[in-house]
Amino acid sequence: MSQEKPTIVNCPQCGIPVVWGDVSPFRPFCSKKCQLIDLGEWADEEKRIAGAPDMSDSDGWSEDN
Questions:
Q1: Which residue, of 14, 24, 33, 60, is most buried by count of CB atoms within 10 Å of its CB?
Q2: Which residue ranges does the record annotate as region Disordered (predicted)?
Q3: Can you give the pTM of this predicted structure?
Q4: Is 34 labelled a binding residue?
Q5: Which of 32, 28, 50, 52 minimizes the C-alpha distance to 40?
Q6: 25-30: long-range contacts (C-beta < 8 A, 24 or more apart)?
Q7: Is 11 marked as binding a ligand?
């Protein structure tokens, strides 16, 4: 029998190698601390997913004709 090599990823917060499996409950993070730091950055809108810009009245768009 051949044992498969575990998948290793770097923690997106601190860069420490993390085994992608049941032995790492906070994957892809190395710890609860890194997980919470990342969550806080999303909550503070320091991180965001790029998308289309908002259409607002300042862009010359209006529901009124």
A1: 24
A2: 45-65
A3: 0.68
A4: yes
A5: 32
A6: none
A7: yes
Alpha helices in 1-65 (DSSP H): 32-43
Long-range Cβ contacts of 58-62 (<8 Å, 24+ apart): none
Of the options 3.40.50.720, 3.40.50.2300, 1.20.950.20, 3.30.50.10, the CATH number for the domain spanning 1-45: 3.30.50.10
pLDDT tens per residue, range 9-50: 999 999 999 999 999 999 999 999 999 999 999 999 998 888
Find all residues with CB under 8 Å of 52, minimum gap 6, and list them: none
